[in-house]
Design brief:
This protein has 124 residues and is of the alpha+beta class. The protein has a single domain, classed as Dimeric alpha+beta barrel (Alpha-Beta Plaits), CATH 3.30.70.1060. The chain contains three helices and six strands. The strands form two sheets. Strands 2-5-1-6 form a four-stranded antiparallel sheet. The model has no long low-confidence stretch (mean pLDDT 92).
């Protein structure tokens, strides 16, 4: 089963890392990406640019509204994602807990729907 792992980060914490600390975290992340690729678990992984570059859009009553930044009022934003293949949620959690930035942020692990459900978006 596929799981999308969303890496939540607080930009302030990452920006406060020294150059040496950043290089260690970066190398750990790149090494873990290679480990997951070699094991066949990693399908894709991408970092996102700063939440300050985001646009949030809504269409209500036929009108488009676009605002700067993420909608949620929170310190942590999605900093990136990795899409994995795992046998079950326990294996997905074991894989996700190895992601280096989990030590300074959080990782949300969510099963991927292979297609839109017939009985409603999230089931009933």
């Amino acid at each position: 089963m596929k799981y999308l792992c969303l890496a939540y980060e607080e930009e302030r914490i990452l920006n406060e890392l020294t150059e040496a600390e950043w290089q260690v975290l970066r190398r750990e992340t790149l090494d873990y990406v290679e480990t997951l690729k070699k094991s066949g678990h990693l399908l894709d992984a991408r970092a996102l640019r700063s939440a300050a570059t985001a646009k949030t859009l809504r269409i209500r009553h036929g009108q488009l509204s676009v605002t700067d930044g993420p909608f949620a009022e929170t310190k942590e934003q999605i900093g990136g994602y990795f899409l994995i293949e795992a046998g079950d949620v326990d294996e997905a959690i074991r894989i996700a807990k190895g992601w280096p930035s989990a030590r300074i942020g959080s990782i949300e692990v969510r099963p991927v729907e292979e297609e839109l459900r017939l009985d409603g978006r999230y089931g009933r």
